[in-house]
Request: fold
Amino acid sequence: MSFKRIGIIIGLSIYTIIIFAQEPFICRGSFYLTLANLGTKSKAFEVVVDPVGGDVQFSPLNDTNTGEVLNSIGFRSTDSFIYGIDPGTYNLFQVDSTGSAFLIGNVASGVNTSRIHIAGDITPDGRYLVLLESTDTRDEALVFIDLESPTFAATKQMLSGTNTRCADVAFDPLTSQLYGFNTFGDRLVIFNTTNGSINANFPSTDVADFMGAIFFDAFGNLFGYGRRKGASGNGQDGFFSVDKNTGIVTLEAIGPAATGNDGCSCPYRVELREWVAINEELVPCTTVPITIEIANTSGREQTGLTFEHYFPESFQITDISIPFPATITEGGIGSDYFIYEDLNVPVGIHQITVWVELLPDASGFHELQSTLSGLPTELGEIEISDNPFTLIQDDPATMTVNELNIDFSAINTNICPGDEITLEPGIFGVDYLWSDGSTDPTFSVSDGGTYAVTVTSGCEVQIETVTVQVIPLNVQLEPYHEIELGDDLTLFPFLFPVGDNYFFSWESTNELEGNVNVQNLNIQPFFDGNYTISVDNGQGCQDSASTFVKVLKNRKIYFPNAFSPNSDGFNDFFFPASKNPEIVLSFQIFDRWGSLVFENYNFQTEQVDQGWDGEHSDKKLSTGVYVYKAEIQFLDGEVFTFTGDVSLVR
Reply:
């Protein structure tokens, strides 16, 4: 993202109702702000970028404040002045390049003075200063102040749809769409200037929660100065880029804290940017594309320009692709520079591609910069290309050319069974020949072995081999188990290769108790379930295996059909028995007439002394047949009722 010439004016110097000979701005793509955070009145600053630290810095233009607070500012493309209002008095000011403010009228009759007017911009055609009319809780209307009208006549477009509250708005110089940053939703919004509808279909951002100033560059890139989300205090010290297509906000730099700010820019110009769009390593004797973009948003075709580029002597131009009619007057293909004279650049964004061959002695660090001259005075006369990937203004594109060298040392050549690695030397513009005869720039490997690649540039050949090792790892479990409800089971995984440096983790569809990071897992399941072990060999490889455990629920409870309570120590009690202890919720004995002769509650099966001893009310009952009823709760929580009869024998 390019941040071309971030010149910001914060506040404005003196004004007078007498119109002196104002000095128009030279439209160099600068960004401007009005700020009143140093007191109740505004003061002028220029914002520069520290080329070392990359932070935004404020440099005062003068020591005099305006005596007014200015806001809703916009840059007018037709006369190269900034216009803005004092939101308290609704005086309209024209601001020149010296930072002087000149009173030119009053717009109070065209606005609702009970509302707030702190956000504004000028339409790309220079006709209207557009004010955002708001309450404390919502944006209500767009007010169009006609700068060509002697009385600055105003029209109004009411807003509808999403509730927004924006501190600034800005027109895209390419599409004329009006953008704002909605503080209520922390998101980008678009205002339809024709029907007043608001498009808020952008995601909320966790980077910024307020932007007092937003502005565009000539390439249609949107920026803002505002408050970082989560930052202490209420000051705005964040410089952001905003993707106008996705709404994604990125913090690019930190600057001085500011409040009460509004912003505008001069994107109506000719701007140049240049870069090397290669992410791979560059080596001599290859041919590389250089991309140059020209943005002409000045509103008219720029004619009679001179476009030139001087490359290092170790570069040789092999081709130039230019999107409009042009004839090289000097240099060109076969040399290390070119000059186009009498060049006409239409309105729009145009891309030029220059292919250069890196000669055998091209190794080293290089800076690249092109120049466009012959521009009108108001556009700065000359423009040099900017590196779009840095915040620093007018800095060259950079590229490093290295000697041909293949290095696989950074690649982890140990792979896991079933995995694959990609061998990728990452060198641009060379020819590849791999062990299997393939010529792709990458080579996929899933088997162990030694692999070779031959890399050929226009003047050198390099051969390199790499050995790939597959680290064995396999874990297995018996696929199926059956156990009785209440029984224990230990799950034993089978590992290959056998070793002690494994890490284990068990998971199950049933709840697991105790340590699950063990090799052998002991369980007592109440329900059917899957059990999965995951194994890590500590070298980046994992494997897993699963087994299904079926829990057999036979609900077997044993009740004897007779007992002899004669105190001989054998068969003296009648009680429920089971393989595993179950809870006896209730146990009742009835005589043949249905009278309750014994009852007991909440004990476990196999507890002999909790059973019936053949007595009732401390009296021994006579021999006979008695009826029993028992409610048993099993380990899985299910409750079953058992009934039957038992013979008491004396």
Q: What stands out?
A: The two ends are 102 Å apart (CA to CA). The chain is about 0% helix and 50% strand. The first strand starts at residue 15 and ends at 16.
